[in-house]
């Protein structure tokens, strides 16, 4: 497993991280097994959110409860892993999104809720999950100060933010925003399309996000690496993605890995700080995906995959 370094944080952070969004309704032994497999595959970074999981007994945030229990069952020392959570999204009991909120009071409450459910004293990273258009950046700054000085959060970042939103917050917040977590993968390539299609009829709308993160040396955390659409399903072995699966299979054979590993290597081929958040809870898929960290695709292979995913070059 290759690792990345973040300024002010240190090195040794695994390039592949396990997201626990799908842990909320899983039986506890399967959660324990997913954690154990991830650790054995070299994964030492875990991504949570207060909104992940809604179990009939445990309620909203059940993913964090299950993961906290798994940490104790597997016997993981807190300092052995990097633990990240996110807050700022509200949903009702039917999982319909109702609002975003980045008020001082809510951000502090969100972190305290995550710490309680996870049964830990601190988070390594806390991210604003999606930015509230009604945000007052001074309130975010006040919340981050309280969370950092109380020792509850060590580092901060954002998710699903464009460059202007990052700058809006960073102008008010003392702590460096180190991470932007965004959907990206062979099934969701807007950030690449944007740079390739400048001034064409296909011009996209991500406002140079990839280049911005690279210039500012932020870490791009990519979510849903194997999905197309937003949670529409995985493109791996899906007939609608025939040409893509043919190229994935060819390269998997060449590098003696699985299609998951090649899809992951395609993301990690970006010459910037990238961390991929995988969400599978199946041990074999965790191990197979993590192996993608060791594969370096050639430039032509990277383009072959992009084209096979249904894109064209202008
Ligand atoms: N910031 C945000 O707004 C945001 C949004 C969404 C997610 N996230 C983060 O990103 C993490 C990953 O998201 P994700 O779970 O959507 O990512 P993902 O890893 O792309 O998708 C996982 C899903 O793909 C399936 N899958 C993977 N490999 C497969 C294969 N070879 N064959 C068949 N099915 C396969 C998994 O099923 P199996 O379990 O059967 O393998 C699972 O259902 C989340 O846990 C969360 O931490 C963040």
TrEMBL record:
InterPro entries: AKR (IPR020471), AKR_Detox_Biosynth (IPR050523), NAD(P)_OxRdtase_dom_sf (IPR036812), NADP_OxRdtase_dom (IPR023210). SUPFAM superfamilies: NAD(P)-linked oxidoreductase. GO terms for cellular component: cytosol. Residues 16-302 form the NADP-dependent oxidoreductase domain. GO terms for molecular function: oxidoreductase activity. PANTHER family: NADH-SPECIFIC METHYLGLYOXAL REDUCTASE-RELATED, OXIDOREDUCTASE YDHF. This is Oxidoreductase, aldo keto reductase family protein. The lineage of its organism: Bacteria, Bacillati, Bacillota, Bacilli, Lactobacillales.
């Amino acid at each position: 497993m290759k690792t990345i370094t973040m300024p002010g944080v240190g090195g040794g952070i695994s390039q592949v991280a396990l997201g626990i969004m799908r842990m909320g309704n899983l039986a506890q032994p399967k959660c324990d097994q997913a954690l154990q497999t991830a650790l054995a595959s070299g994964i030492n970074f875990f991504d949570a959110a207060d909104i992940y999981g809604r179990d009939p007994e445990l309620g909203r945030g059940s993913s964090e409860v299950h993961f906290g229990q798994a940490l104790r069952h597997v016997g993981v020392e807190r300092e052995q892993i990097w633990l990240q959570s996110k807050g700022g999204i509200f949903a009702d009991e039917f999982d319909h999104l109702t609002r975003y909120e980045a008020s001082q009071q809510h951000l502090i409450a969100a972190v305290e809720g995550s710490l309680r459910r996870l049964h830990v004293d601190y988070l390594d990273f806390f991210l604003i999950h999606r930015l509230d258009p009604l945000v007052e950046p001074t309130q975010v700054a006040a919340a981050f100060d309280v969370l950092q000085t109380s020792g509850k959060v060590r580092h901060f970042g954002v998710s699903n933010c464009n460059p202007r939103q990052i700058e809006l917050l960073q102008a008010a917040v003392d702590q460096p925003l180190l991470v932007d977590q965004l959907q990206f993968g062979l099934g969701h390539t807007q950030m690449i399309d944007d740079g390739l299609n400048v001034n064409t009829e296909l011009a996209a709308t991500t406002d140079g996000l990839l280049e911005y993160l690279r210039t500012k040396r932020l870490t791009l955390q990519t979510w849903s690496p194997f999905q197309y659409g937003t949670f529409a399903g995985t493109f791996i072995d899906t007939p609608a993605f025939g040409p893509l699966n043919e190229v994935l299979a060819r390269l998997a054979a060449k590098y003696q890995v699985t299609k998951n590993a090649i899809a992951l290597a395609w993301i990690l081929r970006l010459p910037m700080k990238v961390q991929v958040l995988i969400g599978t809870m199946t041990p074999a898929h965790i191990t197979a995906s993590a192996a993608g960290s060791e594969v370096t695709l050639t430039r032509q292979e990277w383009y072959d995959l992009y084209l096979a995913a249904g894109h064209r070059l202008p």
